[in-house]
Structures are given as structure tokens and as C-alpha cells.
Task: structure prediction
Amino acid sequence: MKGISYSRYGGPDVLEYGEVGDPKVGPDAVLVKVRAAAVNPVDWKCREGYLDGMLDPVFPVVPGWDVSGVVVQPGVSVPEFTAGDEVIGYVREDFLSRGTFAEYVAAPVRTLARKPRNLTWEEAAGLPLAGLTAYQVLVKALQVGRGDTVLVHAAAGGVGSIAVQLARHLGARVIGTASEGNHDFLRGLGCEPVKYGEGLAERMRGLAPEGVDAVFDTVGGEALKTSVDLLVPQGRLASIADGDVIGYGGRYCWVRPDAEDLLRLTELAEQGVVSVHVSETFPLERAADAHRLSQQGRTRGKIVVTVDWQVEPAG
Result:
């Protein structure tokens, strides 16, 4: 099958398009024909070796953890799905090996849920990792509820934009940091936008003079440090970008594959609570260009790569 792979750590140029080995379908996995796969910052961080202390690579590595596609073959111990089912997944293993930037992927059943019927393949591919991250941080780590005021950093990004929608659904008032060019986008999601960077603390005190109940940090560094002083007494703090959050009394969160959480996101998408903004798509063979764009760090919503499948002629 065709796919993207890299045989050493490095920049986008190490990504190669060509033949990769066909995946084997274990008893607790399903073979998925890939229709689309989202690009996440963790993809290029893995490719450049930044996560080498956490995840062992088995070269050549096929990148990608997000997928939307069609079940081709369920494993022998999988009653949950049958051939033809449309699914989404956050297909992360405990090492770097067989990802979703290929024509097929063998996905453990624990990583999958049915695809939201109202989302395109591209939108659906952008939901798993970003959606699970937002859901697990807001619901489980921060326990956001009705009446809370929540600050979301980088609110126009893939994780941030879904977090804004989920927090609103949970009954919270949401303030989100973003560049001014993304402020109208955030207002459309029900978020009160605020410019990030120098002077954020003063701008925030104008919006929430009594402080915020919870902060969802996706940036780290100065944004995290500033957030600490914005919290009300007993306020909650969580970060997906900076382990220093623990020293501030907060939670450092790493998203986990969870079929039940993913199914809940499917339900919320079908109810119109959560939407996925796709900023740009690339064909699979241009995955290196998709990585380059992701590394600029200015993406609104999601970047997605697509697999072009020819429709078999009738008869």
C-alpha cells in the first residue's frame, strides 16, 4: 500500500511517499481504509525526535494518529464493528510505528468510535485527538461546570476551538486568547476573544476583574505563568504544553485513547454542539507540506491530509 514514512528523525524533508508495509490485523483491532487523517503538532514533534524520551521509534515510521475511514476487516475478537462501518479514531500506540498517513491502518478497537453522520471525512478526521484532549481536560481534569469562567489559550487552534465549544456546552463563560485576525471566528463560537502576548494580564482583568475559575493552557511558557495570577482562590489549572504546571498546583494532561469519550464526542457533533473547522487539506503525497504549515503554529482549526480512493465502476 501507499503511505508516508520516515526512516530517521529530521525536518519535513525526511517524509517520503511510497510503498509501506501492509498492516497486520490483530485479534483486538480492525483494518480501516483511510479516507482522511488530521495533522497535529505532536506529529512533527515526533518526527523531529522531541518525544524520543517517551516513545521508541520503530523505523520506518508511518506518522499520524487521527483517522476517519471505513472498516474493511474486523479482528477475530471484535464484535463492535463490521465491514463497511464508518469510523473515527485516535490511533496511538505506545511507540512510533504504524500511523494513519497511509491507505490503510490497523486500529485497536479501544481507539475507535463510529463517525459522526453529519461531518465530512475531513472534519471527522480532525475530531479525535483534538476533541479527546479538550473533553478530557475540561470534563475530567478541570471539572468545568455551569457558571464557571474559563480561559482557553490559543482558542482558535484545533484543540482550543473544540474546547471553547465544549466549555460553552458545559455552561461556562469562555474567554479565549488569539490573534486579532481570529477574534471574529471565536465570537462565532460563543467565545469572548482577547489578544495574547504582552499585557494579557491587564486585558484579562478588564474582562474578568474577579479572576477566572479555570485555565486550559495549550501554549505553556509565559502564557502559563500569567494564568496563575488570573485564577480565583481554589481555581483550577491544566496544561497540555508545559509540565511546569505541576509546580503551580495544576494538572499536566496527555490525551488518552478512550472509545467511550470518543463516542460521546460523536454524539455531541451530531447534536450540533461541536463542529470542526478545517483550514486546509492536502493530498497524502503532500504530507510534508502539511507538516510545514502545522509547524508555523498559526493554524485556525485543523489541517487534514486526504486519501483519494477511486470508486469502482458499477457492474
About this structure: The first strand starts at residue 2 and ends at 5. The two ends are 25 Å apart (CA to CA). Residues 210 and 247 are 23 Å apart (CA to CA). The chain has a mean pLDDT of 96.
